[in-house]
Specification:
Blueprint (H helix, E strand, L loop, with lengths): L11 E6 L9 E8 L3 E9 L3 H8 L3 H6 L6 H23 L7 E2 L3 E4 L13 E9 L3 E11 L23
Length: 170
């Protein structure tokens, strides 16, 4: 939970919800962690409004450096994506203890209407969460695990010496 809040003094409550209809935020950030056997998608749903901007901008070095106004959407989205990237990095570090060769995507923002198409990935596991920060800011997260069948090819691990010639000096 420490990666979800921007200040150590913030209060963060995360609870699983059963009804995805509760998720009404207008946009979401997509993060992907992939391996050869699974893809983990995390969607952070948010509203691009003054309360959300104010919370995430309050401790951001991007906001301080550019002295932005709350109305600046491009800087806010950069700040929010960096927040998502930090959360994804924390998940990636935990998963690296059990799985090797993980790849992590850069977060990107999509509109709410695109969330319906996540089902096309045929996830084997989907769960929804409500995230409440300081008893007032509400975000949602969707966690999707797309698990794949066994890899259908083999690799010959015998080392074959490749003789490419000798180096000539001119």
């Amino acid at each position: 939970m420490a990666n979800i809040t921007v200040s150590p003094d913030d209060i963060c409550e995360i609870e699983a919800i059963n009804n995805p209809e509760e998720i009404s935020e207008g946009e979401f950030s997509v993060l992907t962690i992939s391996s050869t056997s699974f893809r983990l998608l995390t969607l952070f749903h948010f509203n691009n409004n003054a309360a959300t901007k104010k919370y995430f901008e309050k401790n951001s070095c991007l906001a301080v450096e550019s002295k932005i106004e709350v109305e600046d959407d491009s800087v806010f989205l950069d700040i929010f994506q960096e927040f998502c990237n930090i959360c994804c990095g924390a998940m990636n570090r935990e998963l690296n203890q059990a799985y090797f060769f993980l790849g992590m995507s850069t977060p990107y923002i999509l509109l709410r209407q695109c969330a319906d198409f996540v089902s096309a990935l045929d996830p084997g596991y989907v769960n929804y969460y409500r995230i409440t920060i300081n008893h007032s800011l509400v975000l949602h997260a969707t966690l999707c695990l797309c698990d794949y069948s066994d890899v259908d090819f083999t690799v010959d691990t015998c080392e074959v010496e490749d003789n490419t010639g000798e180096l000539e000096l001119f």
